[in-house]
Amino acid sequence: MSSSSTPPSSLRSQSLLGSLHEGGTEFPNNCTNIENAERKHEMQAYVMTLDGIDQGEDDQDVLFMQLSVDTVYASYAAAQNRVRQYTQLLTLLKREENLWAERVEKAKYVLPEYKSRW
Fold first, then answer.
1. pTM (two decimals)
2. Burial 29-68 (b: 16+ CB within 10 A, else e)
């Protein structure tokens, strides 16, 4: 491999580094971690090349990535649905609490001398 050409994995890691590094002060320690991970990935790729392991992506890799992304989206949608359901439940419970508070206020007028134990 010539020094002027960059392997696709290096381009991917550089674009990842660039996109996370643009934040500047938001992720000061993450830049070092990303650079370390990039070095580790390059070392693993080099060792795999020495061992004669093919790094090319095949149809199964692409399918795996697509299914992984689909799984993440499905998990996100399920989490959104749960949040919506819990919000609705909280609204119902708050409404119930308000109804009981009104009943307690009305009961105070029926038995004004009654003292609650709570």
1. 0.42
2. eeeeebeeebeeeeeebeeeeeeeeeeeeeeeeeeeeeee
